[in-house]
Structure formats: C-alpha cells, structure tokens
Amino acid sequence: MPENALHEQQIDQFVEDGYLHLEEVVPAAVVAAGQEVIWSDIGMRPDDPASWTAPVLRVLPSDPRPFSAAFDNPRLSTAFDQVVGAGRWQHRPHLGQFVVRLPHRAAPSDTGWHVDESFPAEGRVDTRFDYSHWRVNVLSRPRALLLLFLFSDVGPDDGPTLIRVGSHLDVPALLRPAGLKGLPFSIATRLAAQASASRPVTLATGRAGDVYLFHPFLVHAGQPVAGRNPRLVSQTPLVSEEPVILDQPAEADSPMESAVRRGLATGAVDWSL
Known about the structure:
Layout: H1 8-17, E1 19-22, H2 28-42, E2 56-59, H3 65-71, H4 74-83, E3 98-101, E4 119-120, E5 134-136, E6 143-150, E7 162-164, H5 172-175, E8 183-184, H6 185-195, E9 201-203, E10 211-214, E11 220-221, E12 231-239, H7 255-266
Antiparallel strand pairs: 1-10, 2-3, 3-12, 4-5, 5-8, 6-10, 6-12, 7-9, 7-11
Helix pairs in contact: 1-7, 2-3
C-alpha cells in the first residue's frame, strides 16, 4: 500500500461522516500557478478589494495546466481507488468550475442546503453554469465523488462550505422510489435539506493545497465571506466508470457504495425500482 494511502480509520470516517479532508495534497508551486490563472480570468486583483465587484463568481479557467497537475497526484489516485474502487473512476484533464467567493456588501444567491445534481434531463441542452434541469438518482450516475480543491487558505470567516455531517445517509432512501430516472435537482435538494435538518454542521476549512472528498449525496451549502480574504475553491465531480451497484454482495461494495447501502437500510421508504 502506498505511503500516502488512506488508513482504515479514514475509510470508516468517509462511510460514517460522508467526507474526508486530505491536507497538503497540491504542491505550493501548482497552487500559485492556479491562483494566477484564476485572478487573470476574472479580471480582478487579489491585492485590490476595490476590484471585487460581486460576492461570488464562477469561472472555467482558461489555462488547464496547473489544474491538470493538481489532479494528477498519486496520493489522490490512491484515495480514489480506495473510496470508489480501482478502475471505477475517470481521469480529469482539469478541475472544472471554480467558485470564487469575495468579501462584498451584497449577499450571494447560492447559499441553500443541497445535494449536487448528476445528469441532465433527457432532451435538455446544457447552458453555461445552468444545472437547474439536471437530476440525481440513487445510483449516482455518473458522479462518484464531489471534489473540493482549495486554492486559497480557507478559515472560518472565509466562506467555507458548510457540511451536514452524516447527511449522505439520509439521501438514498429519498431517491430510491424515483428509480433510474431520479429526481429533479430542486426536489432532491428540498427533500435532502428537510431530511438532514438535525445533522451537526461543520466547515470545510483548510490550507491552500488541501482537498476534500465528498460523498455524492452529502448535503452541503455555500455561505458568504464574513472576513477580508477571498476564497478560491474548485468544485468538480469525480466521474465514475460505472454507477453504484446494489445487486451485489455487500462485501464487494466500495466505501462509497457501502454508504449508499447503509442509507437505504435505515431509510423508511419503499426501495423497489
């Protein structure tokens, strides 16, 4: 087993809590190169608060090279193999969309509790950053994980993502009756937020170069920056080679699938597809 592989306690934590925080994953030089690209793309300066014109911005970086280097990391590959299964996830050429949160007098409009959508409704054409017609199903097609790459230090006042610990266990039973078609993002989000309302909340804080692995059903939320520091975080799916498999012996499950099976076992909903 590689030196930086996840140990058994971390695997158990992922199944129980729905997330893992991996520290010091992305080298400092790669982080610095990525920061330069992001600030250039949004047309603002990190040392000039007067240029920060909105509370939240979304950007697909124009130069993928630093972000490809961030993903191509043996420690991450090993973690993905352990959590999702070797050969069951796809390589990414970049980190996808960045969510940049800035200190601003206006409130951001994206702070509700939600689970991330996974696939577009049949016949719909995607538009840039518009996922309102997307859906999510109990097999989490085709999302294996949600990845948060921190490209800035994120403290408690820096708009860290809010996490409902263990909420990923509340979601499978809500999705199962909808079958492979799944639920629209808006309905899945409303039900998941209601079902997980009593879960304890923690913050996705860390240092630039840290990476969070979220179970795809983890309920989370954005929040505004309360302090003075911008927050640069990539939020991107790890795409699976195959969806969750429920008709196999439990001992064959990946940890990601074990959590889904556990959620189904404790949910008070008819599971039949």
